[in-house]
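[recover] target loaded
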């Protein structure tokens, strides 16, 4: 097998659900635009209430706090059990639920990305700059974005496609629903991704409950995230 074929197979196995918010966005945004965004003052985002009470919780600001919060997440979300899953990246913490798809990853995924320890985005990048960059990219399929007090957030619906790993194998695609948020001037980006609006809402509800230190119920269900579109 040649190098090109090996690369194509590796891309097919790559879990798109985990990567869609970070790596996929990076592929859409020109590197010069990202660097320019990082070197400018904090972007002004429109004031907008974050979905499902995200703006009411205090986000952890260190690794210990992130680990504690993820430890309080429920064992089941939207009927899916928590999965033993990692993408091997050291700059992020992941909580996944459901059976992992070889192409798209787990059907429900929460992750925290620390810009200061990664090498994909500038290490001085902030959550607010991420939201501003994503909102300015038409290919990101943004549904809504804004800033709720100090919380920057962006909601999107993206169709991710993965080419087959054998000649003649058709491309497969899936609609992925995402939400990313973080302190506007902070270096940590929290993200949720799901195969359905209901799954996304359940993930956000589970996160909010854990952040508020409320006792986690065995199963978290929620109504779909409301779709707020820009005028």
């Amino acid at each position: 097998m040649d190098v090109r074929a090996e690369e194509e197979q590796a891309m097919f196995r790559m879990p798109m659900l985990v990567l869609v918010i970070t790596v996929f966005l990076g592929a859409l945004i020109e590197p010069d635009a990202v660097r320019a965004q990082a070197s400018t003052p904090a972007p002004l985002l429109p004031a907008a209430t974050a979905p499902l009470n995200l703006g009411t919780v205090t986000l952890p600001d260190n690794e210990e706090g992130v680990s504690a919060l993820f430890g309080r997440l429920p064992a089941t979300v939207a009927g899916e059990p928590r999965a033993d899953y990692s993408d091997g990246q050291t700059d992020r913490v992941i909580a996944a639920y459901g059976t992992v798809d070889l192409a798209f990853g787990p059907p429900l995924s929460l992750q925290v990305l620390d810009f200061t320890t990664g090498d994909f985005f500038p290490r001085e990048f902030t959550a607010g700059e991420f939201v501003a960059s994503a909102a300015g990219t038409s290919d990101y399929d943004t549904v809504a974005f804004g800033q709720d007090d100090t919380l920057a957030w962006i909601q999107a619906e993206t169709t991710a496609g993965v080419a087959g790993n054998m000649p003649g194998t058709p491309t497969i695609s899936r609609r992925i629903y995402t939400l990313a948020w973080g302190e506007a001037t902070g270096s940590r980006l929290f993200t949720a991704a799901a195969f359905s609006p209901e799954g996304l809402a359940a993930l956000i509800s589970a996160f909010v409950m854990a952040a508020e230190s409320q006792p986690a119920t065995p199963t978290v269900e929620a109504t779909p995230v409301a779709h707020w579109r820009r005028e």
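[recover] notes: The chain has one domain: 3-220.
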